[in-house]
């Protein structure tokens, strides 16, 4: 922590283009964040166990590509956020990236300031400052599950439930709107962000995965509209 409640986030940037790596690193550093940059996928792979707050990955890299890196990052820390950047086929990379658990995608070329804004938005969503409020309840109990929002942890009894970052975000969204009917569009906006562009069927897929991992949830489907988490 630095300053008054400002988190000194650790960002790992993996970009093999030298000039772009330096420019992006400088913009991220200006936010007061710790930045470690990598130019090679294999070197970045060796740092996975260091678990920064956020990875920013280029897809095309020497050594090991971004797809393999995100698989290994998520295998180690399913909820750790990742932003993909790429100059390749934007639609294909975006779809594959989201399916693999990326939290955002940016197609080159883009303005460095836009990356900072998107990174901040992901960080604030994944590590909410309200969770640092000492007056807040330390956990939320729903059905058989105990949710620790600050730690981004869900326990079933004493056993942790492995969720991806998006699955956890969806869970928190449902809990905070418990008893309310939520349309697919509302879920998209709250979990993926207002600028998400794509099919709302990703909501159905994420709901299906959440139901499988948290079977005790009373999660209702409102056909033709959306979903509702029934109050316990």
Task: Please characterize this protein's 3D structure.
The protein contains 8 helices and 12 strands. The protein starts with 9 loop residues before the first strand and ends with a strand. It has helices spanning 18-30, 41-45, 66-76, 90-99, 112-126, 165-176, 184-192, 201-213; strands at 10-14, 34-38, 54-58, 82-86, 104-107, 140-142, 145-148, 153-156, 159-160, 181-183, 219-222, 226-229. The chain has a 5-stranded parallel sheet with strand order 2-1-3-4-5, sandwiched between helices. α1 packs across α5 (112-126), α6 packs across α7 (184-192) and α6 packs across α8. β11 and β12 form a beta hairpin. The chain is α/β, with parallel strands linked by helices and 232 residues long. The radius of gyration is 18 Å and the shape is globular.
Shape, principal axes of CA atoms: globular
Low-confidence stretches are 1-6, 130-136
Largest sheet: 5 strands, parallel
Helix amount: 25-40%
Number of helices: 8
User: What are the secondary-structure elements, in order, as H or E?
Assistant: EHEHEHEHEHEEEEHEHHEE
Give me the Rg, rounded.
18 Å
β-strand number? 12
The computed structural class is: alpha/beta
Mean of all residue-level pLDDT scores:
83
The fraction of residues in strands falls at: 15-25%
Strand order of the largest sheet: 2-1-3-4-5
Distance between the termini: 36 Å
